[in-house]
Design brief:
Helix content: under 10%
Shape: elongated
Oligomer: single chain
Number of strands: 50
Number of helices: 6
Length: about 675
Amino acid sequence: MNKQKWLIVGLSLAMAATLGVGISACGGDKDPDTPPTPTEHTHTYDAWDYNDTQHWKYCDEHGTDKSNIDETTRANHTFKDGKCECGATEGGEIPDADLDTREFYVVGGGMGTLKNGTWDGPKAGFQFAKAPHKDANGNTVYTFTMELYSADEFKFIEKNAITQETDESGNSKAVWHDELVFTLPDLDVSSVTGAFARASETSDNITVLKDMDGEYEFTIRTTKDGDMKANKVEVRLVKELEPLGVESQYEMYLVGKIASKATSDWPSMLGVANVPSKCYKMELQDDEETFAIEVELSGYDQWKVWNYKVGNVNAGYYPTGIDGNLSTGGGPDGWYRVTWKVGDANVTIAHAHRYTVWDYDTEEHWKKCVANDGSIDDTTRAPHDFTNGDTCECGYKQAADPDWKVKDDGTLESYTGNYENMVIPANLTTFPALGDLFGRKQSNSQYYPSDANWQKVKSVTVAPGNKNFKMENGALLSADGKTLYAYFYYNTATEATFDSVTEVKQAAFSGNKNLQSLGLPNAKTVWTGAFAYVSGLKKISLPGTELLYSGAFQESSIEDIELDGITGFYGDPFKSASNIKSIVFGENLSHTPRTVSFGGLTVTNITFTFKAKTPLTPAPTFYYQFSGKIYVPAESVEAYKAAWTKVADKIEAIPTEAVSVAPVEVAMLPEKKD
C-alpha cells in the first residue's frame, strides 16, 4: 500500500470542480486567465504549526494550503516569557471568546472506529476535539483520529452552522445557528485524496479505497469571522493497518421492500438478530471481492445493500449511507443481478436473464428470456417431443396426420393411408403388430402382415419429435436400438447386421426375399414368426438367443440354424420350415414350459445337435417319420436313449470332427435413404 505520511485533504480534481474550489500546484502559474502550469518547486518550511505539546514547520507558499511539513522540526514547545517561538502560549488556554464555537462530527459506518457509528446525527464519541488555542495563523484547530478499512464510508457534519447574511446597512456578517446541520457549505474537503474517494458525484460521503486500511488523523481549521472558503480539512496517516479478511468483514444482504419476498421489509433492518432470515443474502464470488445475487424485483421495489457484520442500525448501508434507496430505476419487473464490490462505492443493477418462456417453429423449440428481448438459451433448443400426445411441452401442436389415428395412450387406433410412403407419427409410443397395421395375412393371426399392403411400402420415416423409434439399416428400431420391430419388405440389401438388438418382434423379417446374410449376435428373444416366409436366407446364427417362440422360422428357406445360447423355447418354432437341414442347440437348453415339439417339421432327415449333458424331460416330440440323426455329448448318449426311447435308435455321440455353423459376419450397411 503506497501511503503518504500526509494525505492533503481532497477527493480529486473532479470533486474540487464540483465543490467550486480551485487548486493550483505549489509554485505554479498564478495568472487567473490561463490554466495553471506546474513548475519545479522547492519547499520552504517557514511557517509554524503546533498542538498542545509540540510544534513543526510547513511550506506555506500559498497561505493555508499546506502542501508539506518538515518532520525534522517537530519538537516539544520551549517557552520564554510565556511564549514559544512557534506562537504557542505557555500553559494557557485562550479564552473561549477568541475561539470558534463550532462543533464538528464524523457520521458513517464501517468495520473500524465507525463500526459503532451512525448516520443519524452527532454522537459524542465521534466529535472532533478542539485545541485550547489557535494556531500561528489564528485558526481554531479541530482533530479526530479513527481507524478505517476498505469501503468504510463517512462524512463530516457540524452542529453549529455559520452563514453569511446582510445587515440593515447592507454589510455582510457571519451569523451562527445552533441547530443541527448536515451539509458543510463552508468546509473545503477538496483535498481528501489518495486513500479516499467520493461515494458518488452528487454525494458528500467519502469512502475508503481498497487496500488503504489505516489509522488516520483528520484536522479542520476554521476562522470565526474570516473567509469561509479558508476552512479546510487535512488528513494524516498515523499508521497502516493490516486489511481485514473479506469474509470476516462483510456479510451482505438486500433489505427493504421487495415484493417477491413478503418477509423482506424495512423493519427487518433494525438490527434484530433474525435480520438475515428476512433478507436476501448476497454470495461472495470467485474473485473474493464481489458480492452478487440474482433476485426477482418489481419496478416499485425499494431496498438497500446492507452489511450484517456492521453492528449498528444504519452504518452498514451501501453505497451512500442512508441517502436514498436503490431500485431498478423504473425498469420492468423481472430478474436482476445486484452486485457490490469491496472498495467500490457503487451498487450495480443489471437485468439477469431467466429463460422460462417457450418459443418455437414447426421443427424445434427453445426457451427465451422473460424480458422478451430476443435472448434465447441455445442449450434448450431441441426437436419437438410429442411423446405424451400431439402437443409438445412448448405448446406447439403438430399438424394432424389424416392417415394415422393415435389414441391418447400412444397406441394405434387405425391407419387409413396407402402404405407407400409411411411416416411414423410423433405421438405414437407403442408400435402395433404388423397384422394390425397392414392387414392380416392369416385371418387368425395379428402377427403376419397382408402381402398386398406389406409389399406396397416404398419408404418409412420417423416424424420429428418422436423419441420412441428410429430407422436404421432399413429397419424400424426402438430409440435405444434394442428392439427390432420391422425389416421392411422393400429393402434390397443382401446383408445386414444389428449388434444392438436384443429383441426381435413378431414377423419382423416377414416375407423378405433379398437377405442372404443376417447378423443378430445379441438377440436374446426371438418372437413368433420373426423369420417367417423369408426366402433368401439360408443360414442363421443366433448365439445370444435364449428364448425362441413358436413359428419363428415358419415356411422360411433357412437350412442351417445355430442356437448356441438357447435356454428354452415355446411351442414349435420350426413348424412348416421345409428346408431345414441342421439345428444346433447349446449346452444351456433346459427350459421346458411344455413338451418340446419338433412335430411340425416335415423334413424327415434333419440333423439335431444337443450340447446339453442332461436330456430334456419330458422327451421332445419328433415327426413320426423322422429319419435323421440326433447328436449328443458322448458321455450322455445312454442317458439320452433312456430318456428319449422313441428315438433312441437315432441318438449318437457328437462327432469329434463335427463343425458347428459359424456365426455370420457381415459389415454394417448404411441406412436406406427413403
